Amino acid sequence: MQARSALFDVYGDHLRSRGSEAPVAAVVRMLDPVGIAAPAVRTAISRMVMQGWLEPVQLAGGRGYRTSERANRRLDEAGNRIYRREAPDWDGHWHLAFVSAPQSRAARARLRAGLTFLGYAELSDGVWVSPYPRAELASMVEREGATVRVARADRFDPEPTGAWDLDGLRASYDGWLQAAGDLVDQHFSAHDDEDEAAFAARFHLVHEWRKFLFADPGLPDDLLPDDWPGHEAAQLFAREANRLKPGTDRFVARCLGA
């Protein structure tokens, strides 16, 4: 697990509802049970400040950091998708993004990863498709020095679901259903403190589940088979996340000195 990714999980899943800020020492305490050492946390924080995700702030508990408005938009969008909140109704139209390629290879890689995270798939060179419009599209493309034109497609024949690897996604959801129980149980055997164990178990559960944001665009049910395992996997995730939340909240409050 990378420290930067872990920090996004901490701020999105635990601090967003607590003012989106925390002292550095509290963040270090939170990430210790999941194996992220203090030097890695501080290095990742510095990088996220330079990238515009975090902002320094002086708090009662010492120097800390809060998420920027840009980060809050990303975390809220990710949270809606992780917990399947406010699932939009599909109007039957597809949204197309015609994206120019940045000059830098690194920028092209970031742009491709960002478009995939938002739920787009590449139909052909520079042409990306999504079942829903994505609010972050324009700002993300602009940050990478590219341009985008958007259009709405009234129909495709056949539907462009083949732009995503649905067979691979099905296999991943099947694997999740088999492994999620062990993922949770192993942390209760590794930590003596029950609240710390609940935090570590839920943290890894959310971290692994969040990876589906890079593979699953949230296709409408109308386009998915009746036996789609993503539905059962989402129910299992929500059930386990809710079960672990009380202990997790107590551990976070302890780390924050509340």
From TrEMBL:
Species: Nocardioides caricicola
Pfam families tied to this protein: PaaX, PaaX_C, PaaX_M
Lineage: Bacteria, Bacillati, Actinomycetota, Actinomycetes, Propionibacteriales
Transcriptional repressor PaaX-like central Cas2-like domain span: 89-154
Transcriptional repressor PaaX-like N-terminal domain sequence ranges: 3-70
Entry-linked InterPro entries: PaaX-like_central, PaaX-like_N, PaaX_C, PaaX_trns_reg, WH-like_DNA-bd_sf
The protein's name: PaaX family transcriptional regulator C-terminal domain-containing protein
Domain called Transcriptional repressor PaaX-like C-terminal: residue spans: 164-253
